[in-house]
Design a protein that fits this description.
alpha+beta; 2 helices
Length: about 50
Amino acid sequence: MRKYLEKKYNCTIWQDGRGYHIEVDGAEVKICKYMTEVEDFLKETRGGNK
C-alpha cells in the first residue's frame, strides 16, 4: 500500500513510533497514525487522479 501511494502521489511515506510521515518534495507535511489517514490526506491534497 505504501509503495502504491508513493508512486501515485509522488511522495515519500515512512514510519516510526509516532506514525506514518508524509514527505512531499523533501519536506514533511503530515504525520498520520493510520495508513487510511495517509490515503485520505493524499486524496484531498494531492488530487485523486495524479
